[in-house]
Design goal:
33% of the residues lie in helices and 23% in strands. By secondary structure, the chain is an alpha+beta fold. A six-stranded mixed sheet has the order 3-4-2-1-13-12, with no helix packed on it. α2 packs parallel to α6 and α7 packs parallel to α8. The termini are far apart. 41% of the residues are buried.
C-alpha cells in the first residue's frame, strides 16, 4: 500500500514537472528588471512614441534626461533586493542614457582663439530689475547677448546699461541683440503662426562683423507650450519652428548662430526642423526653466558651420528663466 502511494505521488510529481512551463526569471527583482527594460526602451526608441493624441512623444522628449533619475531609483531598489537579474537588466538603460547624454557631462574642449561667447536670456516682460539683469549678463563677458520679452518700458534700461560694453544693438518687436561688433543687414524674421494677430514680432536676423568673419545671428522666441491633462499643447510652437527653419535654409551667410527661447528641448521632435539643420551644444545640460526649479533647457544656442562647444547657466535674474551662456568654436 505504501509503495502504491509513493508510486502515485511520484507519477503525479513527474506529470506536474512535465506540464510546468519553461524556466522564468527569478521572482526576486523581476518587476524591477521589467521596469528597467521598459525605461531603456523609452530612452532608445522615444521617437517611436506617437505624438497623437496630446503630443505625448514631445512631452516625453521634453524631460527625457530625467529618465536617468528613474534608472538610479531602480538601481537602489535592485541593490536592496540583492537581485542579480535586476542589476543585469539595468545595464540596458544605463548604456542608452550614457550614449544619449553622457557626453554632456564632459569638460569640453579648451577655449580657442576663434571662439565666440554668447549669452541667451528671456528677460521676462515683468522683470522688476532690468538694469540688474543687464549687469548679470554683461558680467559673463560675452561677444553677443540675445534677449527676448523686451518691453518698451524696460528697453531704455537695457540700452543704457549694456551700451558701454556693447555699443551695437538691434531690436525688432520683443527680441533684440547686443554686440561688441558692428551689425548690418538687420531685418525682421516672420515666424508668426496662422491665427496669431499682426504685431506679434519675435524673430530677428542680423550680421555681426567679428574679427573671425561675418556671422548671421538669429534671435527668436517661439510660442509657449502648455502641459495640460490632454497632453502637450505645442502646435503653434511647432509651426513657428518650421517657419524659422525655412528662413535659416535661405540664409546665404555661411556661419549662422541661432539664440532664443525656443520653448522646447533639443530632444523634442517639435524642434527637429531646427536641430536637423544646426549643431547643438556638445557639453552641458544648462537647465534654464523654470528658474526656481530648473527642469529643462528651453533657452537654446545652435550654430551652422560652427560648433557649440559648451553651454551653462548663469546666476538668476528677475526673470522666470535662467540665462545661458555658450562658447562657440568658429573653426
Amino acid at each position: 500500500m505504501v509503495e502504491r502511494v509513493d508510486s502515485g505521488r511520484t507519477a503525479t510529481a513527474a506529470g506536474e514537472e512535465a506540464a510546468s512551463p519553461l524556466p522564468s526569471l527569478p521572482a526576486r527583482g523581476r518587476v524591477i528588471a521589467v521596469l528597467a527594460v521598459l525605461t531603456g526602451g523609452l530612452l532608445a526608441f522615444h521617437g517611436a512614441v506617437p505624438n497623437s493624441p496630446g503630443h505625448l512623444g514631445s512631452l516625453l522628449e521634453a524631460f527625457l534626461p530625467w529618465l536617468g533619475v528613474v534608472v538610479v531609483l531602480l538601481l537602489v531598489l535592485a541593490l536592496l533586493r540583492r537581485s542579480a537579474t535586476a542589476l543585469l537588466a539595468l545595464l540596458l538603460p544605463v548604456a542608452v542614457w550614457t550614449y544619449l547624454f553622457g557626453g554632456l557631462l564632459g569638460p569640453g574642449a579648451d577655449a580657442g582663439p576663434r571662439d565666440l561667447v554668447v549669452v541667451q536670456h528671456n528677460v521676462s516682460d515683468v522683470n522688476a530689475d532690468p538694469a540688474g539683469t543687464a549687469r548679470t549678463l554683461a558680467g559673463a563677458e560675452p561677444d553677443l547677448i540675445a534677449l527676448e520679452e523686451l518691453v518698451p518700458a524696460a528697453l531704455p534700461l537695457y540700452e543704457t546699461t549694456l551700451a558701454p560694453d556693447f555699443p551695437y544693438h538691434q531690436v525688432r518687436g520683443t527680441v533684440g541683440l547686443w554686440s561688441k561688433y558692428p551689425l548690418s543687414g538687420t531685418r525682421l524674421v516672420d515666424i508668426r503662426p496662422d491665427g496669431i494677430e499682426a504685431g506679434w514680432n519675435r524673430g530677428l536676423r542680423t550680421v555681426a562683423h567679428t574679427p573671425h568673419g561675418d556671422i548671421a545671428a538669429y534671435v527668436a522666441h517661439l510660442p509657449s507650450v502648455r502641459v495640460r491633462t490632454s497632453g502637450l499643447a505645442s502646435s503653434l510652437r511647432d509651426e513657428s519652428a518650421v517657419l524659422l527653419s525655412r528662413a535659416l535654409a535661405a540664409e546665404k551667410t555661411e556661419k549662422v548662430v541661432l539664440m532664443g527661447d525656443l520653448n522646447g528641448t533639443v530632444e523634442d521632435r517639435g524642434l527637429s526642423p531646427l536641430t536637423s539643420r544646426l549643431n547643438v551644444a556638445e557639453r552641458g545640460f544648462a537647465f534654464s526653466f523654470p528658474a526656481s526649479l530648473p527642469m529643462a533647457r528651453i533657452d537654446q544656442v545652435m550654430a551652422r558651420s560652427a560648433t557649440v562647444d559648451a553651454i551653462r547657466t548663469l546666476s538668476s535674474t528677475g526673470s522666470d528663466h535662467l540665462p545661458v551662456t555658450a562658447r562657440i568654436s568658429l573653426g
